[in-house]
Amino acid sequence: MMPLAGCSTTRPGSYFVEPTGPYTLDTGDVVRVSVYGDQELSNTYRVSDSGNIAFPLVGQVQVRGQTTAVAASRIAGALANGYLRNPNVAVEVSEYRPFFIQGAVRTSGQFAYLPNMTVRAAISTAGGYTETADRNQVTIYRRQGNEMVRGPASLDFPIYPGDTVVISERWF
Sign of the C-alpha dihedral, residues 156, 16, 3, 168? Predict the structure, then answer.
């Protein structure tokens, strides 16, 4: 994830948000799990509110906060524990969790995230600006660890699944 320059929490003060590295799974993501040599186990699974996927034979596998490579390793480890000999597992994101947009856009709400999405694309997805939109003021809210941080953004700023984009109204 890219840093949000000049981000601040809802508490007084501000700090620089460190990049978090590769994409990590969270609630609402849908992953495609491929178990080579076993088509019955290969399927898509939604990450639950508790951060797990319910995988056949092994039950709940914790994937929240993990990359797809780590999730594949966890599933393979669980399958190797008495179910399959040397399982070869691959995990990829099939459907990202949504992003949210509110404020001075034609249609506020929750929308499907697409890779490499920017603020400009998010505004277009929401039907564009309203007549009273301040086209120079965008705020992004993003979860970083256990905190929600916010920061200003330009139209070409990348957004991520789970982000909330707020478009301000202008005051004449």
Answer: negative
Cβ neighbours of residue 90 closer than 8 Å, sequence gap 6 or more = 33, 34, 36, 72
pLDDT per residue over 114-135, tens digit each?
988 999 999 999 999 999 999 9
Q: How far is Cα 48 from Cα 60, in angstroms, rounded to an integer?
A: 10
Query: For residues 162 and 168, what is the distance between their CA atoms, to the nearest angstrom?
Result: 19
Q: Check if the beta carbon of residue 147 is closer than 8 Å to that of residue 84.
A: no
Q: Give the whole-angstrom CA distance, residue 27 versus residue 48.
A: 5
| Helix or strand holding residue 72 (H, E) | helix 68-80
pTM, two decimals, is 0.78
Nearest CA among 31, 51, 10 for reference residue 142: 10
| 97 neighbors 48 (Cβ within 8 angstroms) | no
